[in-house]
């Protein structure tokens, strides 16, 4: 399946791990383990297509409401994933970045993110962004407050963008959400003003490279006018 009009920046809300496990009579953590395997496959698939930025919603600012044991497991799973996939990132020329209110995460997870970011900083094939303890509203608020602290009296679009978590992250072209939910859940609000949306009922652990390619193919057929007329 060939995609001619490849988006520059794709975001994915990786939803449905818990339901995937519950449908199989398994603990929710087993769904997160299966979801991590899907993440690896989609990162490699995205790199092959020529996508330049892949942003993955791994943990939201609202996810702290989940049971403490599940939150702690998710953090350890992210730690193991990021550390163990360093060879995969390097082999595929993928730069790793993390964004969100990272300073509120456990120190061991902050260290892992920082270490892998540094070791992949030279990679130019694709940038994979993990959004962890991330919220779109929170990112905008943090940006405005930092700009004010630096003495800006008027916050323009150009000024605000400079204070986003990753200022060079381009606007989102395509946002994919799995599991049948039809909302964007506070993800990349500033960057998704004109993003194309693509929803699927497939739960994240069952999301395949083939379905990912179908989303890209559907995107390639759309006409993007950005408020104008063609």
TrEMBL record:
InterPro entries: UPP_synth-like, UPP_synth-like_CS, UPP_synth-like_sf. The active site is at 15, 63 (proton acceptor). It is an enzyme of class 2 (transferase). Binds 2 magnesium ions per subunit. Mg(2+) binds at residues 15, 196. CDD domains: Cis_IPPS. Its EC number is 2.5.1.-. One of its GO terms (biological process) is polyprenol biosynthetic process. GO terms for molecular function: ditrans,polycis-polyprenyl diphosphate synthase [(2E,6E)-farnesyl diphosphate specific] activity; magnesium ion binding. PANTHER family: DEHYDRODOLICHYL DIPHOSPHATE SYNTHASE 2, DEHYDRODOLICHYL DIPHOSPHATE SYNTHASE FAMILY MEMBER. This is Isoprenyl transferase. The lineage of its organism: Bacteria, Pseudomonadati, Aquificota, Aquificia, Desulfurobacteriales.
